[in-house]
From TrEMBL:
It holds the Pfam family DUF6292. InterPro entries: DUF6292. Residues 16-102 form the DUF6292 domain. This is DUF6292 domain-containing protein. It comes from the Bacteria.
Length: 145
């Protein structure tokens, strides 16, 4: 029996991260999602930012900061966040795709400071609303994958 709702939260987060990854054209094995405090997700990307061509790029999600783009360091230290999407804590996948597309085009989207969203009492419902709903297509390049 799941009296604390962790199963629902984990399922909703996995579904949401899967939907975003699929929209980005990223395989499931390049993602990681964890419930807890804070709930978080990581999506490894193959693309590189124009100003950091030698650094791996990732999208990070946290339940109090939403999505952020970060570059990996060479020393194994924490990643360096280069931009936060802002807006809302659980945006539709298409907004995350647009954020990444603008970053890759060096258009400086989002914001530099973390948004610090309040804890969301309906987080599971928001995640489920934007979660995986079946086969889709990659929207980063604008064409089906």
């Amino acid at each position: 029996m799941d009296i604390y709702g962790w199963d629902a939260a984990e399922s909703a987060l996995q579904g949401y991260v899967s939907a975003v990854a699929e929209a980005l054209g990223v395989p499931p094995e390049s993602t990681c999602a964890m419930t807890g405090r804070p709930a978080s997700a990581y999506i490894a990307l193959e693309e590189r930012l124009p100003n950091f061509p030698d650094r791996d790029l990732a999208l990070l999600w946290e339940d109090t900061q939403g999505w952020a783009a970060a570059i990996e360091t060479h020393s194994g230290e924490d990643v360096i966040v280069v931009a936060y999407l802002g807006g809302e804590v659980v945006p539709p996948a298409r907004e995350v795709v647009a954020f990444l597309r603008d970053l890759l085009a060096d258009r400086h989207p989002g914001q530099l400071e973390p948004p610090n969203f309040d804890r969301c009492p309906d987080l599971v419902e928001r995640l489920a609303r934007h979660g995986h709903r079946g086969p889709s297509r990659s929207m980063v390049s604008g064409s089906p994958s």
